[in-house]
């Protein structure tokens, strides 16, 4: 089991290691997770400049297999998986009929025919599994929630490949293209090695048994990979313009509103297609934008976005003073009429307002190419 449950909170297979390292622990998505070890800034910069590792064993692993597995996954997933070769990974969403988002996820096409791995957000595992099971009725496929049987590490940063290849002996990892994976074996158990990432840097994910996950953690730690918490995971993904479910995507925030329409393929049938096509054609009342603030004041989720005259036109979904850029920036869901680039907007932070302007949501661009 990768998780244990006590007082309704779950603990990953690495919980004891986090505590032993003195991590600041806090509930997140139903799990007791490390927020930081040294400091968010130190850990953030380690990933930007060298390598850091994250316990992501709280994420969900749902397997779909059977003669109609491809047809089913393609029906519940906004992206197109037909024609995708084994060893490929795709990002996309599962949507409700009205276009709202059930979850955003990664779909792995496995090497065994008619087998798929769906990696879902920790807070949504039970909800997603129930929804997927319900929608699978009428399809000849089997859906299995194997989340408790897997641990997962993410190794991120410009030196991630070096550590995965040299320290762990996974030479094949150097050959992986972005959003691909391969199967390996470690201590007699399956090891999935993928190259996706959630930080804007190069990165690898290692999926294996809980006991093997703990062993790989120790090996990487001894080799000098910095342990990182969810605090810098959020600052990193935010700088790179990557959404977080519950903030930038939700049942109320569709892929079209979030600017993620490129992950919706309309030349196939999928749940929510008609609603999203209507949004695409007619425009949505709100749109997710990036905002750069002139001051160093920090915009937080929930802070109002206003016009110069004080008219409220939106709300911040995520905001930080960027560690990499030394700028105060945020994502905000604003009225479509004020969503164009360079539109002046003001953020109300407590009793003061601070001027800013609409910018591209990808605030930080790395040089990583693979």
Q: Strand order within the widest sheet?
A: 12-13-14-11-5-15
- The helix count comes to 8
Order of helices and strands: EEHEEHEEHEEEHEEHEEEHEHHEEEEEE
Number of DSSP-assigned strands: 21
Q: What distance separates the N and C termini?
A: 34 Å
Helix content: 10-25%
The helix-and-strand class reads alpha+beta
Cα shape: globular
Beta-strand residue fraction: 25-35%
Q: Major sheet, described briefly?
A: 6 strands, mixed
Mean pLDDT: 96
Low-confidence stretches: 1-6
Q: Tell me the radius of gyration.
A: 21 Å
Structure description:
This protein has 370 residues and is an alpha+beta fold. The protein is built from eight helices and 21 strands. A six-stranded mixed sheet has the order 12-13-14-11-5-15, with helices on both faces. Strand 12 and strand 13 form a beta hairpin. The radius of gyration is 21 Å and the shape is globular. Mean pLDDT is 96; it is low at 1-6.
Q: Which helices and strands occur, and which strands form pairs?
A:
Elements: E1 3-6, E2 9-12, H1 15-20, E3 24-28, E4 31-36, H2 40-49, E5 52-55, E6 60-65, H3 69-76, E7 89-95, E8 101-109, E9 115-120, H4 125-135, E10 142-145, E11 151-156, H5 160-167, E12 181-186, E13 189-194, E14 203-208, H6 210-222, E15 226-228, H7 230-239, H8 273-282, E16 286-293, E17 304-306, E18 312-321, E19 328-335, E20 344-349, E21 352-359
Parallel strand pairs: 2-4, 5-15
Antiparallel strand pairs: 1-2, 3-4, 5-11, 6-9, 6-10, 7-8, 8-9, 11-14, 12-13, 13-14, 16-19, 16-21, 17-18, 17-20, 18-19, 20-21
């Amino acid at each position: 089991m990768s998780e244990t449950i006590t007082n309704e909170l779950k603990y990953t297979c690495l919980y004891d290691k986090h505590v032993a390292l003195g991590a600041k622990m806090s509930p997140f998505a139903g799990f007791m997770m490390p927020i930081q070890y040294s400091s968010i800034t130190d850990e953030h910069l380690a990933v930007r400049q060298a390598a850091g590792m994250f316990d992501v064993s709280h994420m969900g692993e749902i397997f779909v297999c059977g003669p109609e597995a491809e047809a089913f996954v393609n029906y519940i997933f906004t992206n197109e998986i037909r024609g995708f070769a084994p060893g490929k990974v795709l990002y996309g969403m599962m949507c409700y009929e009205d276009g709202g988002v059930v979850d955003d996820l990664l779909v792995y096409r496995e090497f065994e025919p008619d087998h798929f791995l769906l990696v879902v957000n920790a807070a949504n595992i039970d909800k997603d599994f129930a929804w997927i099971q319900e929608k699978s009725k009428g399809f000849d496929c089997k859906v299995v929630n194997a989340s408790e049987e897997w641990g997962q590490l993410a190794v991120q940063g410009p030196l991630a490949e070096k550590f995965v290849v040299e320290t762990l002996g996974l030479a094949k990892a150097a050959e992986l293209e972005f959003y691909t994976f391969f199967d390996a074996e470690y201590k007699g158990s399956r090891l999935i090695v993928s190259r996706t990432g959630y930080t804007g840097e190069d990165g690898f994910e290692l999926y294996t048994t809980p006991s093997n996950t703990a062993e790989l953690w120790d090996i990487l730690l001894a080799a000098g990979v910095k342990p990182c918490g969810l605090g810098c995971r959020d600052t990193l993904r935010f700088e790179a313009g990557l959404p977080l479910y519950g903030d930038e995507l939700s049942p109320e925030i569709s892929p079209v509103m979030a600017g993620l329409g490129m992950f919706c393929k309309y030349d196939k049938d999928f749940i929510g297609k008609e609603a999203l096509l209507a949004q695409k054609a007619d425009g949505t009342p709100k749109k997710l934008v990036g905002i750069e603030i002139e001051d160093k004041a920090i915009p937080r989720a929930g802070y109002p976005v206003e016009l110069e005259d004080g008219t409220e036109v939106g709300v911040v979904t995520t905001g930080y003073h960027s560690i990499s850029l030394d700028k105060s920036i945020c994502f905000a869901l604003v009225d479509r009429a004020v969503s164009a680039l360079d539109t002046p907007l003001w953020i109300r932070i407590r009793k003061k307002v601070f001027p800013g302007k609409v910018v591209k949501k990808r605030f930080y661009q790395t040089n990583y190419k693979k």
